[in-house]
Write a structure and sequence with these properties.
Blueprint (H helix, E strand, L loop, with lengths): L1 H43 L3 H10 L1
């Protein structure tokens, strides 16, 4: 009887762990993309070729 309970808990735990792993992976991916873009902004600064249209509006 205890073996069936353990198997049931494992079957419940695996989808939850998979969902948590996917969520964690996407958040880490998002954080690394934000960090990389922040570093590129600091290295290259505000390039006027990219931002000239936005600056004209302000």
């Amino acid at each position: 009887m205890l073996d069936l309970i353990k198997i049931g808990l494992l079957l419940l735990a695996f989808p939850i762990l998979i969902c948590l792993a996917i969520i964690l992976g996407f958040t880490l991916l998002f954080i690394t993309i934000r960090v990389i873009t922040f570093i590129f902004d600091k290295i290259f600064g505000d390039c006027e070729c990219c931002c000239s249209e936005e600056k004209e509006e302000f």
